[in-house]
Specification:
The protein is α/β, with parallel strands linked by helices and 300 residues long. The protein has three domains: 17-85, Multidrug-efflux Transporter Regulator, Chain: A, Domain 2 (Orthogonal Bundle), CATH 1.10.1660; 92-168, Methionine synthase domain (Methyltransferase, Methionine Synthase (B12-binding Domains), Chain A, domain 1, Orthogonal Bundle); 171-299, Rossmann fold (3-Layer(aba) Sandwich). 56% of the residues lie in helices and 9% in strands. The strands form two sheets. The protein has a five-stranded parallel β-sheet, sandwiched between helices. The chain has a two-stranded antiparallel ribbon with strand order 1-2. β5 (230-234), α11 (238-251) and β6 (257-261) form a beta-alpha-beta unit. α3 packs antiparallel against α4 and α8 (149-168) runs parallel beside α9 (191-201). The protein is globular. The termini are far apart. The structure holds cobalamin. The site of cobalamin has 31 residues, from α3, α7, α8, α9 and β5.
Length: 300
Amino acid sequence: MTPTAGREPAHPEGLSIREASQLLHIPAATIRSWERRYGVPPIGRSSGGHRRFSPGDLLALRQLRDEISRGRRAADAAALVKAAAGSRSPHQVFIDGFLQAAYALDPRSADHVLEHARGQLGLDTAVCGVMLPAMRQIGQWWESGRCDVAHEHLATEACRAWLNRLLFTGPVPWQPETLILTCGPRDFHTLGLESMGVLLRHRGWSCRVLGARLPAGSLVTAVRGTGAVAVIMVSHLSVGRRPAADALRAVQPTGAMLFYAGNAFISPHSRRAVPGTYLGEDLVQAAETVGSALLEVRRA
Ligand code: B12
């Protein structure tokens, strides 16, 4: 990620549709049709009747664009953005605390906030209700020029250090099966995967988390080398989808159960001909799905 994306020029009345279109790389005609069809965003007008875009409008447009680029239907994406606009996370105080620590480039405070959230809210909520939303927020700050990639890198490494500590100091696994967790051969985004590793570890499963950019052949080696009974593949960007699906196909002959997830697979269309079970967007639900599938095989 480049140091800072296009910084939003401050404009008392808000940006014109041409300026908003240029900043967000969304054609003006698309912005008009989104407003007409979905009322997103509810754009203000200048005294001359021209559309003027506030920072809040720009955020809503950015979210709508990103949700659609993830493969969501426009109407579903618009509903998500509207819901997010009105709602404030019940864990906002922890999210804000983490963001402040990241902005201050202070990894110890970031770790402290995550640990405090775990103490107050429990592991699952600290991961899915605080850490992941905070990282999404960092992404929006970076894109709107409100923070530098240095802040994103620090926040990422603070999350990874916290997750790895939970992974390696977690309870001794009490389930006999081993699982391989990996990102696709082209994927750098590992936080969703590492979060899944921690949730499964704290449910007694023995996880081998192999991280970013694992070649397909090495995935087969890892399954054979560990006798793993299941593979969880995560791909985050559409560029990584096909190499990730190919890696799943490569490991299929080992007989391991296959699961996959991540933004590259959000649209039903993107999941066509991908071997395995799609785990959805709720990591806690996904951990239960994987757990019960493994128990079912064991009982069979
Ligand atoms: C941290 C980060 C990075 C780090 C990753 C470090 C690491 N070890 O993970 C680095 C710096 C490497 C990076 C690189 C890039 N990044 Co980046 N990155 C981010 C950032 C800030 C956070 C990512 C994250 O962990 N989010 C939290 C995730 C897990 O939450 P989520 O997306 O909502 O996921 C939900 C579901 O998908 C699902 N899910 C996700 N993972 C999993 C796993 C399992 C098992 C399950 C069940 C569910 C699940 O559940 C989640 C919660 O509901 C995001 C911002 C954002 N909005 O997320 C940008 C972001 C994803 N990156 C982006 C981009 C463009 C890039 C680069 C291409 C930039 C560049 N030009 O180099 C490269 C691409 C590298 C590559 N080929 O993969 C864009 C993607 C835009 C798009 N098309 O979707 C984003 C959105 C930033 C932005 N606003 O533009 N990035």
